[in-house]
Amino acid sequence: MKYAFNTWAYSHFPCWVPSYPLEEVIRRLARIGYDGLELGCAQPQAWPYFTGKEERKRVRELLKEYGIRISSILPAPGGGPGGNIASANPAEREWTKQYWKDCMDMGLEMDDCRTLLCVCGWYIYGTRERDAWKWAMEGLSEVADYAAKSGVTLMLEPTATDSNLVESCEDAINMMEDIGKENVKLMFDTTHALYRNEVPSDYVYQMGKNLKHIHMADYDRKAPGTNGCDFLDIMQALKDIGYDGYVTMENGFPTRDCHPDVVARQSLENLKAIEAQLK
């Protein structure tokens, strides 16, 4: 299997934790032994509007030098501009679509990355869920059409801890089917399945061939295998369905008292040890 680590733990999004420039993150994750890094599109590393062509070129050179790839691009949900593809505010929806397109273009320039992760939005008081679902579908469809021109695939993520529109495995499947485009597929994060008191390996089997990306984290965003979740079951399920994407850690960032190198190292060591046990 291929392993990647999300850069949130090395940034100050979504909370301040020990933060590092992207060059340092690339160097550290390559040294720990990762095949890829998942690029969170926020400061201090990859806000597309502060990252010019020369910086993107430099990142491409660094990735080649250290022998590591950008596994996926993750636009930041929330924040000042909103970033809500299902917003009742048309201006926010338009901004979000453009931001996602700009993140996509940045990933292509940095490393020909063709995987864009998508939080499908949320609705606020006074908004009908059916309206938010329609706005999300329309926005995602437009971004998917733009992505198809460059061979980029959108990965829809159910996010129960952070949003209220696409929360479950079934929600994500329904949204994918309603959009109905070949370059719109599925992913999930173990954190959100655990939040719903559901079994993460069930998500693997239910999503099946449409599962193209996954986020791994134990309870409380700890390193896999350190806080009670059964990752042997999840990893076996991935093998059973012939999953060939990155096994990506999105953990180590809820509080400022974590050490990202430790979380990254523990995560990789624990999952590689589990992989060796698979049947």
UniProtKB/TrEMBL annotation:
It comes from the Bacteria. Residues 27-273 form the Xylose isomerase-like TIM barrel domain. Keywords: Isomerase. Pfam families: AP_endonuc_2 (PF01261). InterPro entries: IolE/XylAMocC-like, Xyl_isomerase-like_sf, Xyl_isomerase-like_TIM-brl. GO terms for molecular function: isomerase activity. This is Sugar phosphate isomerase/epimerase. It comes from Wansuia hejianensis.
